[in-house]
Structures are given as structure tokens and as C-alpha cells.
Amino acid sequence: MQTHPTPPSLYPAQAEARRILLERVYNLRDIGGYPTIDGRRTKWRTLFRSDSLHRLTPAGRDELLNLGLRTVIDLRYREELAGAPNVFKESPHVHYRPIALYELDDPAIAERRPENLDEVYRLILAHGRSRLKQILEALTEPGALPGLVHCTAGKDRTGVVIALLLCTLGVPDDIIVEDFALSGAYAAPILDELRMQAAREGWDMEWYNRLLESDPAIMRRTLAHLREAYGGATAYWRAAGVADEQLERLRAALLE
Q: Could you tell me if 144 and 138 are in contact, meaning their C-beta atoms sit under 8 angstroms apart?
């Protein structure tokens, strides 16, 4: 088994408050407390990011409900949903929203295998715009927050969504990149499990290991691509049909 050292933090005093340790969930954390370029700060206990919740115990489920959880956005594709149903799928207390950023049979994915995470993230931005809009709409509905966004490892699909949201809120690139890189340490048990499963199934491990990286440079390049190709986060949302008023609702909900 590989070792995964915890990366140094720009805000070490927040590390304990940010990560939420629940049994059988590994990459669950709060995106509160991040400063923005205009002197504001993201709200604590308002938006969470996580790996899959299908392993969550009843005690863990209750703990999230005690934090006020109201919306769960599940980014996994249909095969993942069927094989590992979300524990909040039938919950009367939480609005469960399955919004797959992509499906494996989507033409952009099926036609050509992405060779690395840079390509995966660019495909999400290029072809997932309508689904990303749905996510923003879900998070800005009245009473939607606190909310939680997750995929399988909480690293890639969740990473792109959270990065786009943090960029929209005005969080500096260095902090967005650091937030992304934390998954390399926190999601280690899941990534090791995925790696072993892929090896058993005879996958191309050199290729697959590239998809399990959490190299900060990947997210830094993705943020640069967001600006170069789309004009930045706000311009990206506008092109997706999101009104400025809705972006202001998002900022009002997530910033203090």
C-alpha cells in the first residue's frame, strides 16, 4: 500500500475544523473559512465536499443531519448509483439530487479515452455546462443549504465543481489549488481500493494511475484554462445561461 503524506496547509489552524471524520467516509470536508480577493470569507458549515456516501453509517448520517444538511448533490454516473446507492436517496430530511457530470456513454467520453486529468477536467468544462448549471441552481434554491457535493473519491468531479464555485466566490487560485490537493492525502484509502480493483480487472495501470493523481499543477492548469478558454468563472456561468442575480445569490449564501 502506498503512503500518502498530508500536504502542508496554508491555514494549518483550520485543518481540524475543516475535515469531518466519519466512519467509512474519508474525504469529507468543509470549504468554509477560505478568504476571497475582496476581503470576505467563505462560510463555515454551509457547503461540504466528500467522497461517496454509500458506506456512511447510521451514526454518520445522523451527524450530517445534525450539521443541518439539506441538499446532497451526487455527481456519479448511473452505474455507480446503481452499484452503490446513496444513503440519502430516500431520506425525508434531505433533498437528494443525482446530477452526473458525465455518463460513460457520453460521446465526448466514449469517442476518445482521456489520457490524463487535464483532459478529463477540460471535457467536464466543455461538455458539462448544462449539468454544472443544474448544480448551481440546486445550491441557490431557497432552503438548499447546508449542502454537500460528492462523487466517488471526492477528487475529480467534485474537485472541478468546488474549484468552479470557489473561483466564482473570488477565492484565490493558490487556495483553490491547495483545497484540491488535500484529496491526495484524505482519499488515499479509496484511491488504493480503486487501484487494486483496476489491476484485478486488467486495466492499463500506467494510464489509470495518471487519473488517480492529485498533483496541484493539474488544478492550476485547469484554472488557467478556465480563464483562457472561457474568460473566467463568471463568464463561464453567463454563457451557460446563469443570470448575474443568481451568481449574487450564490455569493450571498456562501460568503460572510
A: yes
Non-local CB neighbours of 184 within 8 Å, separated by 6+ positions: 4, 7, 155, 213, 214, 215
Which one of 3.90.1150.10, 3.90.190.10, 3.20.20.10, 3.10.450.50 gives the CATH number of domain 16-254? 3.90.190.10
Q: Name the nearest CA neighbour of 75 among 130, 144, 189, 152.
A: 152
Question: In the chain, which ranges are E strands?
Answer: 29-30, 47-50, 71-74, 95-98, 147-150
What tens digit of pLDDT does each residue of 202-254 get?
A: 989 998 889 898 899 999 999 999 999 999 999 999 999 999 999 999 999 99
pLDDT in tens, 134-161: 999 999 999 999 999 999 999 999 999 9
Burial 100-119 (b: 16+ CB within 10 A, else e): bbbeeeeeebeeeebeebbe
For CA atoms 233, 236, 241, 243, give the dihedral sign.
Answer: positive
Q: Around 65, how many Cα atoms within 13 Å sit in the side-chain half-sphere?
A: 15
3-state secondary structure of 154: coil
